[in-house]
Amino acid sequence: QVQLVESGGGLVQPGGSLRLSCAASGITFRLYGMGWYRQAPGKQREMVATITNSGRTNYVDSVAGRFTISRDNAKNTGYLQMNSLKPEDTAVYYCNAVAAVGGRSYWGQGTQVTVSS
């Protein structure tokens, strides 16, 4: 059974930092690209950052320079370091894993990030 479990969300003041984690089980993590997506109330889910199985990264413009995506294949875990957080970063953040071959995709259950003073 495949599971992606996010953690690390919470309430933070503007300008603060959070680190999200995505622990994967049931898949050979090193063979999957992974990404972080977010969905704010009343808005569509959007891509935040992705990292391929070979380590190539991509970011949406609104977080470039503030967020960093990374992965530790030995721990089957992906991360999203979020710095200089803004109220507009408030959303439910979801972890996604996509097989590099075949494209099978899995999603986590999401973790709430709220940026507010």
Please explain how this structure is put together.
A hairpin with a 5-residue loop joins strand 5 and strand 6 (57-59). The protein has no helices and 11 strands. It has strands at 3-7, 10-12, 18-25, 32-39, 46-51, 57-59, 67-72, 77-82, 91-99, 105-107, 111-115. It is globular, with a radius of gyration of 13 Å. The strands form 2 sheets. Strands 2, 4, 5, 6, 9, 10 and 11 form a 7-stranded mixed β-sheet that branches. It has a 4-stranded antiparallel β-sheet with strand order 1-3-8-7, with no helix packed on it. 0% of the residues lie in helices and 53% in strands. The mean pLDDT is 97. The chain is an all-beta fold and 117 residues long.
Give a topology summary.
Elements (H helix, E strand, L loop, with lengths): L2 E5 L2 E3 L5 E8 L6 E8 L6 E6 L5 E3 L7 E6 L4 E6 L8 E9 L5 E3 L3 E5 L2
Parallel strand pairs: 2-11
Antiparallel strand pairs: 1-3, 3-8, 4-5, 4-9, 5-6, 7-8, 9-10, 9-11
Shape: globular
Assembly form of the protein:
single chain
Mean pLDDT rating: 97
Q: Give the helices and strands as they follow along the chain.
A: EEEEEEEEEEE
Hey, roughly how much beta strand do the residues contain? over 45%
Secondary structure category: mainly beta
The separation of the N and C termini measures: 40 Å
Determine the number of helices (DSSP H or I, runs of at least 4 residues). 0
Radius of gyration: 13 Å
Largest sheet: 7 strands, mixed
How many strands? 11
Any low-confidence stretches, pLDDT <50, length ≥5? none
The percent range for helix content is under 10%
